[in-house]
Design brief:
CATH architecture: 3-Layer(aba) Sandwich
CATH topology: Chemotaxis protein chec
CATH class: Alpha Beta
Distance between the termini: 38 Å
Number of domains: 1
Shape: globular
Order of helices and strands: EEHEEHHEEHEEHH
Number of strands: 8
Number of helices: 6
Structural class: alpha+beta
Strand content: 15-25%
CATH superfamily: Transcriptional regulator MraZ domain
Length: about 180
């Protein structure tokens, strides 16, 4: 490149130039596509999340841990992220009631899951039942992990939870 030549910018997903597409950000999983669980309770990983996973962990990576802190949604962690999270949990004193409750929930709802070549992974049955994960779901990137929520339950929660003027002020002060 000569002194007067402008550097080339990467193409975005819409074909233009400018900032990298969402799935190319280094902050992790981002976005919130709608998806479906099939009749066997398998979720097909959205393409942008699968692409990010392959970039970060390598083509063919398939090891995940699926669990839930509250039984309301599934949390899908790439296994290396889950193992780091587990280390942090195990460093909490065993006498802590919060640690005991969290591990009880993670153990009840959780299981290892391998993503098949088509990008599908099995959501544990106990979690599917409690979180009502059937049919349409919202798949939300939350940085280091992915959250899967029943679209029906998410709509109900959005209608029931109202932002008050005080909450809006607080959020506005957080430079959102």
């Amino acid at each position: 490149m000569s002194e007067n030549q402008e550097p080339e910018l990467p193409e975005t997903s819409n074909g233009g130039t400018g900032p990298a597409a969402w799935d190319e950000l280094e902050i992790g999983y981002v976005g919130n596509p709608t998806s479906k669980l099939d009749e066997r309770g398998r979720l097909k990983m959205p393409a942008e999340f699968k692409a990010f996973t392959e970039r970060k962990y390598g083509k063919g990576f398939s090891a995940f841990y699926i669990t839930s802190m509250d039984g309301e949604s599934a949390e899908i962690y790439p296994l290396p992220v889950w193992l780091e999270r587990q280390k942090k949990i195990f460093s909490i004193p065993q006498s802590s009631p919060a640690r005991r409750i969290l591990l009880t929930r993670y153990n009840l709802y959780g299981d290892k899951a391998d993503m098949d070549p088509q990008g599908r992974m099995q959501i544990p049955e106990e979690l599917r039942s409690k979180a009502e994960l059937t049919g349409e779901v919202k798949v939300s990137g939350e940085g280091s992990f992915i959250r899967v929520t029943s679209l029906k339950k998410l709509r109900e929660r959005a209608e029931a939870d109202q932002l008050t003027p005080e909450m809006l002020d607080f959020l506005g002060n957080q430079a959102l």
